[in-house]
């Protein structure tokens, strides 16, 4: 496995460089994981991406660097200490560094010569290809596949120029990922929604969720999706609910601050029993917090947001693959149970790219509302399961009435204590069936473990690496449970494994151990200690390992 | 008349809402709309109880949030006639931002604001259209804020159909409602509605003494004139269509919807999804 | 103890009738508790109030009626069955009832004669005074104290006319409450805020919280409080935060739906460390729900509202007395810890009136922000307690900078991982000291109990009555813990009592047992069963007793 | 100039915000305001970073929510000079409702909207003032909504000071800022601010070709004229004070505040509280 960092100021083209390089490396057979660490600014500052690639699936980042591609000097001073002894620093010849590991190439001058001062980073790609023993012949074909026609030539040229300047240094590893996909978590969610039959998408821009909107907007014609930028998040969710009422599969996405504004309407979906998918790509709060960074501190908020009580589901995608399939499942569950479903992602998963086996939609089935009904139609008819037949307006002769006030079976406002109780019971009843189809957490590691680590969502990658590292040494054995369905909490496997565990440690990207709290509440199972990080940067497998072996857990 | 009738109302005897409800039923019947082709969307308030009392598809949403779902319903299925019936507080107070931005969207819906110049359901606080000096339980000194002029703001924001009606003039109101429903685009019809319980200033008498119908000689197509007309709020207050302009609607402009395509009838093609999947390889 | 119901349609003057009668009964020495059951409409429908009065403190309502004052016939048909066998129905002579218990008096005609058809209810008061053996001589003095001058004469006349028509029927009981106060829970909160030094109050009307605004508005000149009706709840809370920043003690109040809109700014108060008091007078949700009714279903929502993590406090007033003193304490804690504090009341407490010993403000002290500071001023200086010196702008030469982004000690935006961690720690640190001053739940009942009931907030009244009833029989012994401070959860007494308990039953006005969940999460203590009610009507002591003795608990 | 200077900025080189920041510092210095008497309030966005870069009391609140705290700060302490500096998205998008209603309140604050006709910080989406056809990552077909005309809406809503400035004309801008700060009441100054990174339509060049200063012959006191002037958005676009009218401010009208009383200096009298307590007996 190799690990490269590309760093520079915002606006220096790090993102394009990474996008091209990750695509190429995957085409060369590697599994690639690209971590993005960006500041909340458009120009300047210090941004970097870390790209790890290997012949086994790579699911998380690491700070042990084989190489640094420094688009400015600051990158060297900030990251030098993370570079392995035999690593390299690829930088422009003009840069002022005496680090012996540096490979200086006049990339800026070359870029000017090529006629576009912004392609320095792309020249570096050429150098990298050479260093890692790749053949640059197919580059053009790959670029043609995903770059705008007019940008292909200059980039191909830049890569070729860079390629010439260096010598092979690393062994090319033979990977099997050439025909896998590479995409970001946000794109995976967006694509999942499209695959589920998304028809209406409405949102207000907010980091780090905006790329979901961008991808859907890009494909909106092709896929027949109305994409609307709302005046605010309140409008976004209320529009999504309106579209859902009218029979369009609809979704909105945002980050915590935008979700805060959606809270009231989230409850509207609850009482009106409207299928709705809301994506929250978490970033550190409270309030504006750290806009472009990561955290997992909205879990309890999602579980209890909005006044009153109603069934809901919260799914935290764990990987890029999960992000796609769980989004599809969210649409299906939202429709079958007529409830709001939250996809609780985060900046780490959302902005990073991962390599995934091409999504298979052959088995995908997503429930649809009814378009016909015979007999007396009552939108909120009491049923055994709590789910009532859902007609959409205008497609039958029936009237579909829904109400944010407590209502009777016909959807008309009531004040009766008896009907109120029955309606609450009817709605809550759905949880019984839902609980039967929850997906148990993934179990990773030794069957014969001593210590059980517990995490959720994007912690999957770091935790699986940590389990490998922990178990590679002699001594104590480790395993982990990583929850994707977080609410309602699936508890069968948890109870089983917790029984066997000598210690249970929750590993979360927040300050209070929110999943541990929910587990305590719903199962009585107590974590003995926690590893918590809340500085806006995702913990790595190695950091988890050190914390656990060093006993340095806080909890 | 029976077709659109439903539940008993919970309004006070004498409330202007009764007339508005009757006018709405009449307008829909005269336009020969089938109840199942019509969606009445409302927020929360006395006015917002309209969907409860009319036999049509009904979306009773949140206070202040009638416009967003109404707009989305029309995007999802433009075959539906979408009517928003809601209060002045709902529309211009809590919902002010949606008011402005749905004008910009120019979605083809008819918006009937029951403007009683007071918060009725919550027992009489000043609304954004209440006059200065309006006294209530929470404004014992009288309201100090300048009343908002919905018509003027709507014109200034680019609305293509801006009208005022009066609950006390049902014949005229039915006509306005029909025009608003038939107008292609966002149509604002602000309706003076006496609240006999909480608004002791803007009574039937008060309105009757002031409102007059805009005549055929009035030209609603001149924006500057219309703005001047909208500012006529003294001894004489015009009712009728104050401003009208033909504009392309949201659905007409939207790439996915234009040409009358009904969004909810579209299906996602698995082959197309597979194509997207391949793009990531 | 006596128990009267006054029923009729909205608009028939039930509220005025109750307001006069409760005041008079208290002046005659009784402790009075007035329960209000109103529909969400201005005219028509069926509304009623139940007034209980006795010589011991009355803290809750009951449906065992001694008398019904029926302003319309519907009242009789709906409530007859709740009337004791020897009870009475006071109604107009024209009413069509053959209930033997009815006392028919031509109140409507009499009202017309008096010249105001609305005073029928007030005539009934006269009848009641006579029936209950009161002397009507002082009525005028009492009315003069709280009615508008111009309304006194007609009401006095009405009472006197009514008085003449009946005979004494019940023994006058000698109570000691003549000089106590009678007020609603909402008024108690409003008065508490004023006593705490409230300067700025901003809200958007919402049942059942509006009376708080009405009372403060009424006294705004006299007390120097700016009262502003905001355009929406988002503005209300952001204005309150702005005023707090500028040094004005500020508050906003709403119900759950309005709180939903305040969620984002609640987090703003969290990260900017701004003292803020938010009152949530709960009503049944989700969404619009039942606007004029009661529920306790927002607890978990309050505890986790807003993205990210920050310290907060949630106090649920239990009684009218508590509502006053706890509101004052909320202001003090908000300022001392620079955190948002939620007063979590509900429609039951908010709209009902209770008799309270006159509030004593002699010991009241509420912290104030600083107006001077020497040395380098840093708004968010790291301190041992986590609390930094809070200056207000414009009152010293120093600059006060606050930021909803993560920030450094000076309040300026940062992206550093280290500062982020330190700032989260600094904020969360405050909880340690706060936990030391939490108020433990009230313990009611037998020290030697078998079964422990657990409740919170307005459940205090019904639970104390239930404990009395339950312990009045032979056999099992009962006790209850009623929480006022609900978050952070005080756990000392709880742990102590739970240890002794054979059974623990949570009694809550919601469908999911929210306090029980929080207790499980934070203490591991498990309730063995629950009594849950969520039909919008507060449970009575008798209903709790029946549920518990009948084993009919759900949970 | 040093007095109001603080941190390094995070803006793109060439951004119009630099000029606006300099103008604000100059205006405050020329008005001889002490930094500790000034509060700069902002929401979130590129424009909204202003409070970070100026040595004055700073309230960096939530996206879209700058006006409510600013209004309340002025109510709490009218001795403070309150300035709101925030973006077009912040003000007219997320914050649209507060925009309308604070005009009605007429609180004495100066509102500087850095109108780059784009969402800068979130990387270039259309804002409410973006032109039709504006293309972005989330509007690949181009924006379809009609741009909002802030000046016209402000006049229609009753604002007493409505002006437009241009970051590329700093001398004029400083003058306008000073006028806005000195105006007694809510003063809207919408400032054309080129966003060199994301707005490739409304560039320095584009603005320079169009904007012209309103001359002394222009009379800003006539509302109808002013509305017409505000609609002048074609080849020629006026900058300067488009409308001005003297109005009573919130604090002047408010019973508790009028006469210049400073709310935060008031104390609650225990005797008065005891009087209230007695009223309940
Ligand atoms: C978020 C929220 N805030 C406040 C309320 C309370 N509320 C219900 S109706 C209403 C005002 C009604 O006024 P208007 O819209 O003018 O309708 P009217 O009753 O006068 O017809 C308010 C404030 C609510 N339901 N939801
Ligand atoms: C509730 C919420 N929604 C969305 C965002 C994301 N956001 C931050 S700045 C911004 C728009 C900025 O545009 P504008 O106000 O015009 O400022 P500019 O950056 O152009 O100066 C958005 C959408 C946020 N911070 N909070
Ligand atoms: S309160 Fe006013 S608006 Fe409401 S029903 Fe009564 S009269 Fe009509
Ligand atoms: S993105 Fe635009 S508005 Fe933001 S700093 Fe750069 S040029 Fe200025
Ligand atoms: Mg109204
Ligand atoms: Mg902008």
Distance between the termini of chain B: 62 Å
General shape of chain A:
globular
N-to-C span of chain A: 33 Å
Bound molecules: thiamine diphosphate, iron/sulfur cluster, magnesium ion
Give the number of helices of chain A: 19
Which fold name fills CATH's third level, the topology of the largest domain in chain A?
Answer: Rossmann fold
Return the structural class of chain B.
Answer: alpha/beta
Commentary on this structure:
The complex is a heterotetramer, with two copies of chain A (555 residues) and two copies of chain B (281 residues). By secondary structure, chain A is of the alpha/beta class. Chain A folds into four domains: 2-164, Pyruvate-ferredoxin Oxidoreductase, domain 3, CATH 3.40.920; 184-354, 3-Layer(aba) Sandwich (Rossmann fold); 369-437, no CATH class; 442-549, Rossmann fold (3-Layer(aba) Sandwich), CATH 3.40.50. Chain A is built from 19 helices and 21 strands. Chain A has an eight-stranded mixed sheet with strand order 6-5-4-1-3-2-14-7, sandwiched between helices. In chain A, strand 20 (503-508), helix 18 (514-523) and strand 21 (529-532) form a beta-alpha-beta unit. In chain A, 66% of the residues are buried. The longest helix of chain B is centred in the N-terminal third of the chain and has 14 residues, at 17-30. Chain B has a single domain, classed as Rossmann fold. An eight-stranded mixed sheet of chain B has the order 2-1-3-4-6-5-8-7, sandwiched between helices. Chain B has ten helices and eight strands. In chain B, strand 5 (161-166), helix 6 (170-182) and strand 6 form a beta-alpha-beta unit. At the C-D interface, strand 7, helix 7, helix 9, helix 10 and helix 11 of C face strand 2, helix 2, helix 4 and helix 10 of D. Strand 15 (401-403) of chain A pairs parallel with strand 2 (57-60) of chain B, so a sheet runs across the interface. Residues 11-12, 15, 17, 46, 116, 120, 195-198 of chain D line the site of one iron/sulfur cluster (SF4).
